[in-house]
Amino acid sequence: MPHAFDVVFSPNDIYCVPIPVGYECSVTQLNLKEKYYDSIRFHPCVYAQFLLCFGYHKIGNQKEFQNFLEQLQSTVEDMVNGYQRYRAYNLLGYCYYVSGNYQHAFSCFRESITIANSKMQNAAIYHLCILLMCILTEMKELSLNKAVVKFSHNVGN
């Protein structure tokens, strides 16, 4: 595409956007000084590929989800100095999170925090909290399952 425009959202669009974009709207609303002047922007290719990932994940088509996830990863990496690039990493990290690839999700959110302007609030913090809670829950369930197996094995003997 030789000419393209950013996909732009207002912080007030929180109720009509996919979950990770809603997080971006939420943190933008927290910035009281710039609340009504700040906008959430995504490169059109990043946003289109994210929507395809999001949609294919929702309908359970893992093959197409993985295909577009790879494309999204490549596009985000190619956007070296893109405006609000950290938000592209948040979308990519969310896609890795829903795929169960927590290590890649963590890397994306960490990169988002690293490249974001320190004065801006970043939804990556929320994503990391959710990711860590999910990991802790899975670890707890795994520990409980091991305890139940051990208990039932001991009771059977």
What can you tell me about this protein's structure?
This protein has 157 residues and is mostly helical. The chain has one domain (7-126): Serine Threonine Protein Phosphatase 5, Tetratricopeptide repeat, CATH 1.25.40. Helices cover 68% and strands 4% of the residues. The protein has helices at 19-30, 44-59, 62-78, 85-99, 102-115, 124-156; strands at residues 7-9, 40-42. Strands 1-2 form a two-stranded antiparallel ribbon. α3 runs antiparallel to α4 and α5 packs antiparallel against α6 (124-156). The termini are far apart.
* CATH architecture field: Alpha Horseshoe
Span between termini: 68 Å
Query: In CATH terms, what is the fold-level topology?
Result: Serine Threonine Protein Phosphatase 5, Tetratricopeptide repeat
- How does the major sheet shape up? 2 strands, antiparallel
Protein name: Tetratricopeptide repeat protein
Keywords: TPR repeat
InterPro entries: TPR-like_helical_dom_sf, TPR_rpt
